[in-house]
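Model it.
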Amino acid sequence: MSVTVILNGREATLDCAPTDMLLEVLRDTQGLRSVRETCRIGVCGACTILLDGEPVTGCLTMAAQAAGREVTTVEGLDGSHPVQRAFVEEHAFQCGWCTPAFVLTAKRLLEEDPDPSDAQIAEALGGNLCRCGSYVKIARAVRRAGTALKAEGP
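Modeled.
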């Protein structure tokens, strides 16, 4: 079957089976390696993408569910988004495996509130696991990105 989506700002046709998960299709047919294949049961968050701007796990989302919707992976941010810059500036990663999912989740949080509390950051990022334990630096990067976004204005 074919599923038409807006993928990272451009219309794309995803060829998939009715049972394919979005994770598989994005990685295998689109070459988007930032969508990490890790637990495949929706626990770790490494496969997080934005579907119509909301963080979802690609391993639990059927590709067919994305039909007619906007799908954003970290590749769609082109490395220039304030959240990406803040992650680099704060060294908010060690191995980097979880970083794309954290970046996308933080992007969504900061769209809702560019000045989130520590509790809001912890809650928003709670579905993403960092096995290296970089949580303090990740939270610091989110705060830095929020400050940058506020400075940029609407």
